[in-house]
Structures are given as structure tokens and as C-alpha cells.
Specification:
Elements (H helix, E strand, L loop, with lengths): L3 E10 L2 E9 L6 E10 L2 H8 L2 H4 L19 E9 L11 E4 L2 E2 L5 H4 L10 E2 L11 E5 L3 E3 L6 H7 L2 H11 L7 E5 L3 H12 L3 E5 L3 H9 L4 E3 L6 H9 L4 E6 L4 H10 E9 L10 H6 L4 E4 L5 H13 L8 E5 L4 H9 L5 E5 L3
Parallel strand pairs: 10-11, 10-13, 11-12, 13-14, 14-15, 16-17
Antiparallel strand pairs: 1-2, 3-4, 3-8, 3-17, 4-5, 5-9, 6-7
Helix pairs in contact: 5-6, 5-11
Length: about 350
């Protein structure tokens, strides 16, 4: 197949969103040409969008990668394989796939374990190479994971980052059926963590300062939803679980206040999992960690096998992640859609294409 011109969205710098065209060639050895069917907008996309062109090029941005403003963003991708390159045998034209957006070297210890995101020589779709905010894109065949029968592309794209991240965080917390799971921050990652938890048989608590987000969480079936400064926060959780605090707390707030609250909400012998990035978190180890026998873990992304597990679990247990997707739009609507997402509306924004 010869070169094709496709539409693409770019972040030229300082908050601008530009719709342009690019040329996509044929897939090389080990690669496929992916026709996008869904591409999710993630909060990290907004960080790149607001950087200047110079800041985006800074090598410290992504373990020495940086990004060129001419690189297409969008790392939550799902679509249909249109063409396969030489040596690709596990996929064929028509295969429905989602893309693990960290592409490792394939040789190091972390890659051998499936943890491409920890590879020192990784490339990220949106940093070192084009991502999914364009009609078609070249991806590595090894980064493509088959979709379960019946799964929507929008759900698969969500699992390719946000919901996959929360699935790994819940696993890091060693959540058990009948336990109480709390999420501090009710953006797409926090909401999906609670949906995973409900599907695993947990009681669920959502905490967020924004009333609209709390109302949306209740509509999704979260058991108890509270503001972070409500006086009865502790008693409401105790009323749900029968004891003070939550067994597992997932922190997605991205600020010091949210992290402190997550630690305070963790029960004695509980586990707090930090997911987000952001500055600051001053803790008093004695009463807040040591005397509570509290376990604090970090959870960064997910492995390829974890993403496979998340795709299968979501379909087999009817988790309902698609309910978090509140806004679907066309690529041509990108400037307005991304600005609306930035305004903090509850739920998830996903670009969709006709199948």
C-alpha cells in the first residue's frame, strides 16, 4: 500500500490544539498499520498541551525522550489492523486490538517480564513516536493486544492507560472480596478503580471536592461518596465497613492534600496505593504509618500481561467501564472537545471513528 494522507491533531505549544494532515507510510518489519477506532483523552495529554514547544523538547520529559511538537499525541489507542509488515504472523488485516503505549526494547529484564514501561530504552506513543490522535498510525505488532469478542473500542482504549492503571493499582492493594476500597480523586482513574473494586466484590467509597464528580460517581453505583472535608468522613466509612478506615485506598488526586487524606483514610493494617504525580506529601511516620501498621505502595502503569488480564476481566465480569465514557466525538472536533475535557467535566472523553 502506498503512502496515505491522514488527519492528525497536534499540540504546537502553550495550550494550542491544531488539526492538520500527515503522511503515513507502509509498516516496516514487525509493524502494523492501525486504523483507529477509538482514542481516549488522558489527563497527561493536557500536561504536554500546555507546555511550550521548547519545554516539550526537553529530554527530561520522559526518561531522555522529550517530544517534538510535530509528534501526534494520544496514547490510549484501539483499532483495526489494516496492513501488516514483514515478519508479522500473530496479527492480520482485520484484527481488533488495543495498544500498550510503552514500547520497550524487548531484550532487557523488565521487557522480558512484560514491564515495558520500566525499560530504560522504551519509546512512548505520543513522546518518541506518533500516537492515536490521527486516523491511522504505525505501531509495533508486539504492542498490540487482541480485544475480547464484543468489547467496544472505547472501553479498550480506556484500558490502554487510565483503566489499566487503576486495575494494576487495585491489584497492588491486594483487594479482597468484602473489603472496603476508597478512591481519593474521582477522575477517570479513580472512578474506574471503584468499578473494578465493585466487580471484585468490594464496598466502595469515593472522595472528591467537586460536587459534579461526586454525583457522577453515585450514578455509577459507588456505595458512599463524600467531600474531602466533610466532618462525618470517618464515621460514614465506618458505617459502611464496620470499622474505622478503608482496607485499600487508591490515591489519584495528584496533590499533597489528597495524599495525606489517603493515608488518613487507610485503616490499621490497611494499604494505601499512590498512583498520581504531583509535588509534595509531608507525613508523620509514627502515628500515620508505623502505629497503624500501614503499607504504602506506589503503582506505575501496568505490564503487558496485566493489560491482558484487565481486558479479559472487564469483559467477563461486565465491569461497565464504558459508563465512565461520557463524551465521544470526532477527530475534527478535537480543539473544542479537549478544551471541554480540560474544564474538569466528570467522566471520560474519547475520539471515535466509524467501524
Amino acid at each position: 500500500m502506498s503512502e496515505q494522507r491522514v488527519r492528525a491533531v497536534l499540540f504546537p505549544g502553550d495550550g494550542a490544539v491544531a488539526l492538520t494532515e500527515k503522511v503515513v507510510g507502509e509498516p516496516g518489519p514487525g509493524q502494523v498499520l492501525l486504523a483507529l477506532r477509538a482514542a481516549g483523552v488522558c489527563g497527561s495529554d493536557l500536561h504536554f498541551m500546555h507546555m511550550s514547544a521548547e519545554e516539550q523538547r526537553n529530554p527530561s520529559l520522559g526518561k531522555g525522550l522529550g517530544r517534538d511538537p510535530g509528534t501526534t499525541p494520544g496514547h490510549e489507542m484501539a483499532g483495526v489492523v489494516e496492513e501488516v509488515g514483514p515478519g508479522v504472523t500473530q496479527l492480520q488485516a482485520g484484527s481488533r486490538v488495543a495498544v500498550q503505549h510503552y514500547s520497550g526494547c524487548g531484550r532487557c529484564r523488565h521487557c522480558r517480564m512484560g514491564w515495558d514501561c520500566l525499560c530504560e530504552d522504551h519509546v512512548v506513543y505520543t513522546l518518541g513516536r506518533d500516537g492515536g490522535f490521527q486516523d491511522k498510525v504505525i505501531v509495533e505488532a508486539k504492542d498490540c493486544l487482541a480485544l475480547p469478542v464484543g468489547m467496544t473500542y472505547a472501553t479498550a482504549a480506556f484500558i490502554a492507560c487510565g483503566a489499566g492503571t487503576s486495575f494494576q493499582a487495585v491489584k497492588r492493594g491486594d483487594l479482597k472480596a468484602g473489603a472496603t476500597l476508597a478512591a481519593v480523586g474521582l477522575g477517570p482513574v479513580g472512578l474506574s478503580a471503584l468499578l473494578w473494586g465493585k466487580a471484585m466484590g468490594a464496598r466502595t467509597v469515593g472522595v472528591d471536592p467537586v460536587a459534579e464528580r461526586r454525583e457522577f460517581a453515585l450514578k455509577l453505583g459507588v456505595d458512599v461518596v463524600l467531600g474531602p472535608y466533610e466532618a462525618e468522613l470517618g464515621s460514614r466509612i465506618a458505617g459502611l465497613s464496620g470499622y474505622p478506615g478503608a482496607d485499600v485506598v487508591i490515591e489519584t488526586a495528584g496533590n499533597a492534600a489528597g495524599r495525606r487524606l489517603a493515608v488518613n483514610l487507610g485503616r490499621t493494617w490497611g494499604c494505601v496505593v499512590f498512583v498520581s504525580f504531583g509535588p509534595g506529601c509531608e507525613l508523620d511516620p509514627g502515628p500515620e504509618i508505623v502505629q497503624k501498621q500501614l503499607t504504602i505502595k506506589g503503582s506505575w502503569m501496568f505490564s503487558v500481561s496485566t493489560m491482558m488480564d484487565a481486558l479479559a476481566f472487564a469483559q467477563e465480569h461486565d465491569v461497565g467501564l464504558e459508563r465512565v465514557v461520557t463524551d465521544t466525538c470526532r477527530l475534527g472536533d478535537a480543539p473544542a472537545a479537549i478544551k471541554a475535557f480540560e474544564a474538569g467535566r466528570p467522566g471520560k472523553t474519547v475520539f471515535v471513528w466509524d467501524d
